[in-house]
Design goal:
By secondary structure, the chain is mostly beta strands. It is globular and about 95 Å long. It has a 22-stranded antiparallel barrel. A five-stranded mixed β-sheet has the order 3-8-9-6-7. A four-stranded mixed β-sheet has the order 27-28-32-31, with no helix packed on it. It contains twelve helices and 41 strands.
Length: 869
Amino acid sequence: MAKYKKNYAGNMMTTHKNKGFGVSALSFAISLALTGSLASTQALADEQQAQASDNIEKIAVVGTRSAPRSIGDSPVPIDIISSDDLKKNGSTDMIDMLVTSVPSFNSRAQPISDAATLIRPVNLRGLPSDSTLVLVNGKRRHRASVIAFQGGGINDGAQGPDISVIPSAALKQVEVLRDGAAAQYGSDAIAGVMNFVLKDDAEGGSITVGQGEYYEGDGATTTIDANVGLPLSDAGFVNLSLQYKNADATSRSIQRPDAANLIEQGNTFVEDPAQVWGNPEIKDDYSFFLNSGYDINDNARLYAFGNLSSRDVVGGFYYRNPHNRGNVYSLDDGETLLVGAINGDPSTCAVVPIPKNADGSDGNVLETDAYQAMLADPNCFAMNQLRPGGYTPQFAGTVEDSSFFAGVKGELGEWNYDFSAGMGNNKSTFSLKNSLNPSLGLDTPTDFETGAYEQAETTVNLDFSRMLTLGSVEDISFATGFEWREESFEITQGEEASWVAGPYADQGFNIGSHGFKGFGPEAAGKNSRNNIGVYADMEAYLGERWLLGAALRYEDFSTFGDTLNYKLTAQFTATDDLSFRASHSTGFRAPTVGQENVVNTQTSIVDGDLIQTFIAPPTDPLSAFYGGKVLKPEESVSYALGAVFEHENLFVTVDYYNIEVTGRIAQSSQIAVEADDYDALRAAGVEFPELISAVTYYTNDFDTTTQGIDLVASYDTQLLSGDTKFSLAYGWTDTSVDKYNPNTTDAGKVRRLEDGIPAHRATLTWAQSWDRLSMSLRGNYFGEYYATHADDTSDWGSEMADSAVTLDLELSYQFLDSLTVSIGANNLFDQEAQKLKDGTRGVLGAVYYESGPFDYNGGYYYGRVNYRF
C-alpha cells in the first residue's frame, strides 16, 4: 500500500516555495495555524493540502537538504526539529535531545533533588517549565504529578508536563513556537508552545537498538525502540511506537571529610563514598504511543492517539552523620548524642558526649565508656544502634503516565470543524529506602512506602474555522472555538510508619521517614478545578506585503475567576528575500491545583547545613503564620520584533523578545521556624513545631522581565564531494527581578533567577553526507552562569562559573538499503563541568556543580543500529 497521505492529528504544516503574494486560502491557513488554534485550523489545512499543486511543499527540518528549520513566512518564530535530527544524540531522553536542538531550551541535572529526580523540569526562554504549553498532535498535554521542589532556581516549584516519556521513534517532528501564545491556547503559553507531532505512516517501520556509557565507565544505557505503520483498510492508518530503556546510575563523588574521619577513628560501618552525586538509576522505562486516523467519508475523519508509559527511578540523598544529625543522632548541635528513654523520662538516661580529638575533629563515640554504658541500660537507646555509621537514604519512585484523545473533524459547508475529547494522567508513587523513622525508636522499619501524587486532566474542544470576506478584504482566515478542562491533584497516604509520630517524638526524635516524610491522613486528599475558554482569531493580507493577525481569548476558572487576553501579529515583506515581523500579546499562567494544595517534607542545604523543611499549602496554618496567601494567576505582557532573510541556500532569522511577568508563582525561600513562635503555632494547630526547622510555600511574591535575542541560520552547499549543511542557533537571554518580597525570596534566589542559566548559548552544526556515509559535528557554547550546588544559594556554596565549549560527533554508515550503523560521542573531548569550590567540595562529597547547563558526568560514547522496513 502506498504511504497514507491524509493527516489526522495536526501532523502537517505547509509553506510556499515561491514568494508570490496572492491572498490564497492556503496562505491564510498557514499563518492561522501559527497564530491561531492548531486544533481548529488543521481541518482547513487538510482540505487545502488535498488541493495543493506543485508550488507547495512540506515544511522541512534542520538536518535535511531542503528548507530551513524556521518558517520564513510566519509572523512569529518557529523551529521545526525532525525525528531524525533528534536522534543525532547519544541520549535517548527527549529533554536532552531538545537541549542540543533549541538554544533557548535548558534543563539541569537532578542528582539529589527529591521528586525532581523522577521528572526533570525544563525551561524555554528563561522561564519555568510550566510557562511553556506542551501539545501532542495539537492537543494540550497533561502536567506531570511531580512538583519540582528543588528545580534549580528558575524551576523551583514548577509543575510542567513530563516530555521525557515521548520517544523520538514516535515522532514525525517537534514544532517549537518561540512566542507568547496564551491568547490562542490558554494558560501556560507565556514562553511559547511545543507541539510533538506523531508519525502517521500507514506502512513500513523501524527497529533501533542503542548502547552507550560515560567515559568514566558508568551510566551504561541500553535502549530499544520500534515503530510500525499499519493500514486501517484503504481509508486509514494505525501507527505504533514502543521504547524500552534501562540506565545505570553514575557517581561523581569523593568521600566526605566527616565520613573519612569516622573511618579513620575506627568506625567500620561508614560507606565509601558515604554520599553519591550522580544520575539516578532508571529501570524498566517503557513508553508506548499510538496514533491513528480513519476517513468516514470525503467530509469527515476520525482520529485517536494516546500513550502508556512507566519507569522506576532510584536516586541518592544526603548522608546522615551518626554524630551530628539533629533530631536523629545528636543533641546540642553535635556535642552529645540524642538518647531516648523507653520509660519516657530522658533524665533517667546518662548523657553521652561525642569525643573530640586535639585538632577538633570527632572521635569514635561507639568506643566511649559512656556509649557502652548507655547500651547496657535497658531503658536507654540511641539510633547509632541501628545505623552506627550513619546512613544515606535512597529516594525511589515509579512514574506511570497515560493519555488518550479522540475526535472527529471535517467540513460542514464552508465551515471546518474539529471536535475532540481526551484525558491524561500522571502518577508518581514514592518510596524511601535505607532510612529511619527516629520517633519509633529501635522498632523503626528502614524502608518506607511514602505515598503518591497523581495529576489527572480531562479536556474537551470544539473548534471551527473558515475563510471570510469583509468589505474589500478577501480570504480572511477566521477561527473560533470552545474548550472545557478539568484537572485534579491527589495525594495518596503513605504507610503509617512513614508519617506517624512515634512514642519518642516528644523526646526530640524526628517524625516520619527521614529524608522524605510520608503523606499522612492530614495531607491525603483530592482537589479539583475546572475552567472554560472561548477564543476567536483572524488573519489577513492587506495588499501584497502586509500580513496582520489578531486573537482574543476569555477563560473562567472555578477557583479564582476569569481572565481576558489578546495577541496582535504583523509581517511586512520588504523584498523577495527580506521580511520583518512583530507581535504583542498578554498572557497568564494559572496556579496549578498541585501548587495550591501540595504537602511535603524535604531536606535542604543552607550554608552547608542540612535542615528539615516543611512544604505546605499557602493557606495552611503554618504557611499563613509566616505570610502565606491564596495564589493568584501570573500575568504577562510580551513584545517581539524580528526579521527573516532568505536567499538561495542561505536562511537567517533574528528575533528580539521582551516578556514582563507580574506575580510570578514560585516556591518561597526557607523561612526559619523560630522557637519564640512555638506556642503560637501550636495554638494555630501546628503539631510538633519544634521539629520543623523551616517552612516554604508557593507565593506570587516577585515580578520579572526577561528579554533575549534568538538567531537561527542555515546554509546549504557542496563540500568534499558531498552535500553539506551548516546550521547556527544562538540565544541570548537576560532576566531581571524587578520586585520581590524579601520575607519570602532571599537574595541568593534572586541571583539564581537572574543568572542561573547562561546568558549566551549557541550551537553550530556541520552536517555532511555522501552516498552511504554521513556525519554530524556539533559545537555547543555555554556562557557564564551563577553556579550553585544543590539548593544552597548562599555565598558558601555559589560562584560565577566559566563559559565552556563541548563537541558532539556522530558518524553513520548505510551498509544496506535498510540497515544503518551509527557511532558517536557527546562531549567528545570530555570537557569538565565547573568544579566546586574547595571548601564546598569537601563538605558535600561532590566534585562538580550540578546546576550547570551541560552534563557534569563528562564524555559519553554510544553505538546504534537501525533497521528500516
